[in-house]
Amino acid sequence: MAPPARAAGDGERVEEHSFGETAGEIPDESFDPDAASAESPEPGEPDESAEPGGPADELALVRTALEERTLDLQRLQAEFLNYKRRVDRDRELIRENATYQALAPITEVLDTIERAREHGPLEDGFKAVADQLERVVAGLGLTRFGAVGDPFDPTVHEALSHIGEDPDVEVTTCKVIAKAGYRIGDRVVRAAQVLVVDPVDA
């Protein structure tokens, strides 16, 4: 016996409806090869999407900071050495000035001792005091200069007078030492006071 026509019609409608739902679930999307190529970086090119601050960047920053600190340290060392030289130079100058101030008046006492020796040997307590004083000033660097026959040098000699000409000299020469000169190192404490003679004019 043949199936009812209504049942057959209902089955066909069901099949058509199911096919329509399946076809609607598949999205209709087109593939663009150019867009895919643009999204992928070329081989060998940096990936701009990568975040900076990797180990290489950190190492470069550390090296730069180290170089800057090294330069700062070298500059500070140079400044310290220059400062130390200035301090040492100033300290030496202060010491020399103090010694100069202390010994300058004593030169007159040494002159008195020398004049006393010209009248004879020193004796007893006066000799002991004179010898000790001369040892002390010598230990402080005070030296005596000026002798008959020295060429006249205006930087260390004070000419009190010209006493004529002398055929035995070729330049202006110290003929008489009125007072000896004293110096500390290269610094003159007191110029030697002298009488000078000039050479005979040719």
From TrEMBL:
Sequence segments annotated as region (Disordered): 1-57
Gene Ontology cellular component terms for the protein in this record: cytoplasm
Localization terms from the record: Cytoplasm
One GO term of the biological process aspect: protein folding
Skewed-composition ranges (Basic and acidic residues): 9-19
GO MF annotation, one: unfolded protein binding
Coiled-coil stretches: 66-93
Gene3D superfamilies in the record: 3.90.20.20, Head domain of nucleotide exchange factor GrpE
Origin superkingdom: Bacteria
Keywords of the record: Chaperone, Coiled coil, Cytoplasm, Stress response
Binding partners and assembly: Homodimer.
Family as reported in the entry's similarity comment: Belongs to the GrpE family.
Task of the protein: Participates actively in the response to hyperosmotic and heat shock by preventing the aggregation of stress-denatured proteins, in association with DnaK and GrpE. It is the nucleotide exchange factor for DnaK and may function as a thermosensor. Unfolded proteins bind initially to DnaJ; upon interaction with the DnaJ-bound protein, DnaK hydrolyzes its bound ATP, resulting in the formation of a stable complex. GrpE releases ADP from DnaK; ATP binding to DnaK triggers the release of the substrate protein, thus completing the reaction cycle.
PANTHER family: GRPE PROTEIN, GRPE PROTEIN HOMOLOG, MITOCHONDRIAL
Protein name in the entry: Protein GrpE
